[in-house]
Amino acid sequence: MNISIIIVNYNAQDWLEDCLRSILKYSADIKLEIIVIDNNSTDESKKFIREKFSTIKLIESDKNSGFGQANNQAAEIATGDILFFLNPDTLIQENIFQKIINAFEQDSKIGIVAPQLVLPDNSLQPWAYGKEEGIMGIIKNKFKNNLSAHQLANLSAEFDWVSGAALAIRRDIFEKINGFDEKFFMYFEDKDLCLRVKKLDYKIAVLPDAKIIHFGGKSSGGDKQRKKLYYQSQNYFWRKHYGFFKSVLMRLIRWPYKILILFTKSME
Questions:
Q1: What is the C-alpha to C-alpha distance for residues 156 and 158, in angstroms, rounded to an integer?
Q2: DSSP 3-state assignment of 180?
Q3: Are 156 and 120 a contacting pair, CB within 8 Å?
Q4: What phi and psi, each to the nearest 5 degrees, are found at residue 122?
């Protein structure tokens, strides 16, 4: 099996350069291709890729089309049996690619594999994997990280979703479910993708012995804009998968938390 690494970039030049160099450093013995799709960055991202990484396939978009649509566009030209969607603000520290290939080859029922995401201090990144949250999960998740260290103990542990910051999927499955839902501009498109893969009776696994550093949120705009996009995507996700009534109930439960955030910001 071979891998196509797909990176969506938007004004993340400094992070992207380190990311690309780390991929090349730890992939010498692996057959892979790297595709960067640039969502109309205003920094020097496209220029430096052309000048410093001439072997990398670069797609230059004339607009910021969002995470899912950009990934779908890049996937159309990818040649790998495995599509590995990776954020530009990540850093590879070892040859995780062979471990990903091995996981898919060892179990034909695994549809999605994710490396373990860690923060720069090597602690586990919160909210990187989890179970389907439901109404009660909305409340619990405000106070408790649903990531269980016990669940990461071995490959047999299954999750309902993994973060799109580093997500590998079998190409044939990705095509079968028509890729990412492009109605999500950013956030929840990874959960939506995973849920649709689970409905095809495939497993979603995290590799505890394959770690990637994820710096987080380095190309998604300001804090206010991120929150707006997050809530818009959450609303759509709940309508799509749980129906109108539960989506309204979710928003009512979420409302006090949003008020608390606004109050806290006003006091700063």
A1: 6
A2: coil
A3: no
A4: 75, 10
Q: Give CA–CA dist 230/257, Å, rounded.
A: 14
SS3 of 151, please? helix
Task: Give Cα 2 to chain centroid, integer Å.
Answer: 20
Name every residue whose Cβ is closer than 8 Å to that of residue 50 and which is 6 or more positions away in sequence: 58
Taking the C-alpha atoms of residue 182 and residue 207, their distance in angstroms, rounded to an integer, is: 28
The tens digit of pLDDT for each residue in 149-179 reads 444 544 446 789 999 999 999 999 999 999 9
Give start and end residues of each alpha helix (H) in the chain.
Answer: 13-25, 45-52, 67-77, 97-106, 134-140, 171-176, 189-198, 223-267
Name the residue type at position 11.
N
CATH of domain 3-218: 3.90.550.10
Side-chain half-sphere CA neighbours of 40 within 13 A: 7
The CA-to-CA distance between both ends of the chain, in Å, stands at: 52
The region, left, alpha or beta by phi > 0 then psi within -120 to 50, assigned to residue 157 is beta
258: Cβ contacts below 8 Å, ≥ 6 apart: 231
Q: Which residues pair with 57 in a beta bridge?
A: 35
Each residue's pLDDT tens digit, 47-70: 999 999 989 999 999 899 899 999
Global confidence as pTM: 0.87
Cα 151 to Cα 130: distance, rounded to the nearest angstrom: 9
Do the beta carbons of residue 110 and residue 198 sit within 8 Å?
Answer: no
Domain boundaries, the chain: 3-218
Enter the tokens of residue 200: 């095809």
| Sheet with 82-86, edge to edge strand ranges | 57-60, 32-38, 3-9, 82-86, 166-170, 110-118, 203-214, 90-92
